[in-house]
Amino acid sequence: MCTLIVALQTTPGVPLLIAANRDEKLDRPALPPQLSGSGDGAVLAPVDLAGGGTWLGVTRRGLVVGVTNRFGHLPDPQRRSRGLLVRDLLAAPDVTTAADRAASIDSALYNPFHLVVADAQSGHLIWHDGTAIQRQPLAPGVHVVIERSLGAAPSQREGRVREQATALAGQPFELSAWHALLAEHIDPPFESACVHVDSLGYGTRSSSIIRVDERGLRSLLFADGAPCRTEFVEIGDQVRENGSMSAPPNANLGRCWQRNPDFVARKIAGEFVLVPIRRRAADLDSIFTLNPVASRVWELLDGSRNLAAVRDRLVEEFEVEPATATADLVELIDQLRQFDAVQVK
User: Fold this and answer.
1) 158 DSSP 8-state letter
2) Given its phi and psi angles, is residue 130 left (phi above 0), alpha (psi -120 to 50 degrees) or beta?
3) What is the C-alpha to C-alpha distance for residues 195 and 297, in angstroms, rounded to an integer?
4) Which CATH superfamily is domain 3-236 in?
């Protein structure tokens, strides 16, 4: 992520508003926000399939952690992914603990970064300048963090975006206005909020808007693409009165699915099909045809492994990219679920 806006205790009815664009290589595989964990510590965060972590996440209780890289330092591939640090900090019970943990890490483990930890009451900025870890509290107001912040390199984007965001943050939340800010284009392209440098295979890959109140997560809006051409959709439904947070039932790669014993796979005329064995014959017109990959998935859905493990087997056995395998697997599970052929263990 390369543009991170934090509006802390400035927006009416929204004590914490996060608006962020992720700029990255166009071919780096990723997933939209996935739900993991349970209870107040449940996490909703996109997934970087290359590094295994995330660039931005929020817990049910309303703890938000986001990271940007720091300009001017060639990344050392031997160091731990900064996205894994975000994942680690999202497991903290509160914002102070998360900030304390971030400030106490060994700087040699990670490439330089800028990290924001916040909830409805307070926020902290922790950064790694290439030598040491530094920390400062975030006062109420609007803060903008980019890859060039804190003396990393000159940039007009940070000040311009802060000015525009400050004007928006003092008003009731309006999605169209924040969307327009995140979709802004100017020259040169790296000074834009929404970056397009196709010649380098680089640009804004996705956009997120998170709203948190005293009860915790209120909303996570996500645009799975450059915001100049992608609409936002609600990924995390508003926190309900009972504190639950919903997500598509097949979205969590850590969840185990198993075959419905009321279905069996049969080879008919050279094709594998799912047949409901405990339904009336009239229901047989709803049999589900399986291609070779889907047949293998059906075999693997024995309840002993989660979807991430199933995905890894597909990558190994069919020699496909992880992102492709994940997308196809999620789509298949959704189809099987609608057909009532699989169930969560």
Assistant:
1) H
2) left
3) 38
4) Penicillin V Acylase; Chain A (3.60.60.10)
The kind and range of the H/E element at 6 are: strand 3-11
One-character DSSP codes across 116-154? EEE-SS-EEEEEE-SS-EEEEEEPSEEEEEETTTTTTS-
Tokens read off for 313: 């087997």
Q: Which residues pair with 128 in a beta bridge?
A: 113, 133
Instruction: Kindly list the domain boundaries of the chain, sorted by start residue.
Output: 3-236, 256-344
* Alpha carbon of residue 152 to chain centroid: 26
Q: What is the CATH architecture of 256-344?
A: Orthogonal Bundle (1.10)
pLDDT digits (tens, 9 = 90+) for 254-284: 778 899 988 888 877 667 888 787 654 444 4
pTM equals: 0.72
CA distance 90 to 62: 10
Contact 8, 118 (CB under 8 A): yes
Predicted confidence (pLDDT) per residue in 12-38, tens digit:
999 999 999 999 999 998 989 988 887
With beta carbons less than 8 A apart as the criterion, state whether 201 and 207 touch.
no
Residue 322 phi/psi, 5° resolution? Answer: -55, -40
Alpha-carbon dihedral of residues 254, 306, 327, 276, nearest 10 degrees?
Answer: -130
Cα–Cα distance between 202 and 121 in angstroms, integer?
35
Query: Which 3 state secondary structure label does DSSP give 247?
Result: coil
Q: β-strands 141-146, 196-197: how paired? A: unpaired
What distance in Å separates the CA atoms of residue 170 and residue 241, rounded to the nearest whole number? 27
